[in-house]
C-alpha cells in the first residue's frame, strides 16, 4: 500500500499548493454522484484526483471532447473462471475499462482451502488494477461432495483483517441460514462483527424463507433470473447484482426491474466469464453497452458499474471522479457505443486502444502446488442395471439450472449404456483431492454429443474431474489427458485426443496469455461441437452440472443430488 497518499498530501494537492501531475482538459466528465455530464478540467496528483478546475501542472492531456468516467467495477467475479491467473486476468480486463473487481476465490479455495486464498491475494500484489476479495463462505458448498479445502469460521477469521477483504462472499448454503446451522451462523456473525457486507446466492428463494435469509443480514443476490424475483428481493432491502456472464446471462430479463426507484440498489457483475467472451465482447464495458442498447440511460448504466458497487462494498477511494478518489479513469468518444480509448489506473496510462500501454511490466507468475491426487486404476464407468428407468440430468443452454427427466435405460449384458439416439450420455464425477478416487456415475441429456467424450477439472464447486461421453474408453482417455496435464480440459473421440486445454494452476487456471488460452479453448469447443454438441460453450455447461446448490438435478463424486430436496438420490427410479 506504499503507493497510497496520506491525508495531508491529498489536502495539499487538492488545495493547489502542489503541482498536479496531470491536468485533463476539454473533457465531458461523468459525475456519478449527480448523474450530470460536466465540462470540467480534472487534476491528478500521485494517483489521486485533486479536484476540478485549473491547477498548476506538469502535464496537460487534452481530451478533445472525449468522455471521462470512473473506472468500471465488477461486483462479483470468479477470476478462476477466466481460466487465467490474477496477473494475466488484470492485463486482460484493464484495457476494457475494468479497474476494480471484487473477486470471490471460491473456486481455488475448494481445491486448496486457505492456501488458495493466500495464493490469490499474493498474486494480486503490484498488479495494475485493484483486486479486492469477498471471502468464500461455503467451502465446501455442501457435504454432498468431496472438496480439497475446507474453510470454517476460524479459518476465515485471519483474512478479515486483510485490507483486501471487503465482504463475505455468496452464502450459497441458504438452508444452512434458514435452519441456523452453527457453522453458517459463526461466519455470518464474524462478517457482521468485522463490518463487512454479506453477499447472497439464493436462486428462486421466496416468501418466508427469503424473509429469514434477509433477516440473517444477507444483503445482495446475483442469481435473479426474472424481473419478479429481482423486485421481490429489492423490496426486502437486498441489493441486486445483475449478472451477464458466459453461462448465465440475465441482463435482458432483469432490465425491466431497473427503474428510477430501484437502480441505486443495483449493479453489474460477470460472475463466470470465459476468455472468448472477454476478448471478443469485453467485460463490464460489454454489460454497460448492452444495457444501453436495451434502453437504459448511458449515465445510469455507468453509475451501476461504478459508484453503486463502491457504495455497497464501502470502497471509499474509488468508483467516482472526485477529490481524494483514486485516479482510475476510462476515456471514450461515444457515450452510447462506449468503445474504450484509454484507461488510467492510479493516474498512470495503463491501456490504450484495447491493449496494455507500452512499458507496462509483463506479469510475474506465482507458484501453486500440484492439486491432482488420484488412482486411474480405480476408475470404472460401467453402470450395472438395477432397474428399468433412471433419473437423468437435463442440461439447459445458457443456464446453470438443470431439470430432471425420467428415462428408460438402454441395456447391454446387464449394464446401462449411453444412447446417442436419445441424446442420453453417460456422466461421471471423480474425486481428485484425497487420493481415494471416489466417483459417481449417471446420465445427462442436453449436452448433444453423439460420440466421444469431454472431460474437465473445472467442475463447480469442488472441482473434481467431470466427464461426459458416449464411450467408456473415450471417457477414460479424456480423464487421463486431464490428469497428465495437472488439470485442464480434453476432447477425445474413437481413441484419438482432439483437443486439450492445460490448466495446471489448481486445475483451474493457466499462466499463459489469455489469447493463447482462448485459442486452445476455442479448439476444444469446436472439437466438442464436432461431436454433435449444439452448445455455444459445452465446457461451461459441463462445469456447472456438478454444482449441488443450483436446482434441480446435479451430480457430485458422492452421487446424484436433488437440489430441491437438498439430498442425494438414487440413479435408478
What is the CA-CA span between the terminal residues? Answer: 59 Å
Radius of gyration: 24 Å
Portion of residues within helices? 25-40%
Number of strands: 30
**Largest β-sheet summary:** 9 strands, mixed
Assembly state (oligomeric) = single chain
- Name the average pLDDT: 95
Shape: globular
Percent strand equals 25-35%
What does this structure look like?
The protein has 17 helices and 30 strands. The strands form five sheets. Strands 1, 2, 3, 4, 5, 14, 15, 16 and 17 form a nine-stranded mixed beta sheet that branches. An eight-stranded parallel beta sheet has the order 6-7-8-9-10-11-12-13, sandwiched between helices. Strand 28 and strand 29 form a beta hairpin. The longest helix is centred in the C-terminal third of the chain and has 17 residues, at 514-530. Helix content is 25%, strand content 27%. It starts with 6 loop residues before the first helix and ends with a strand.
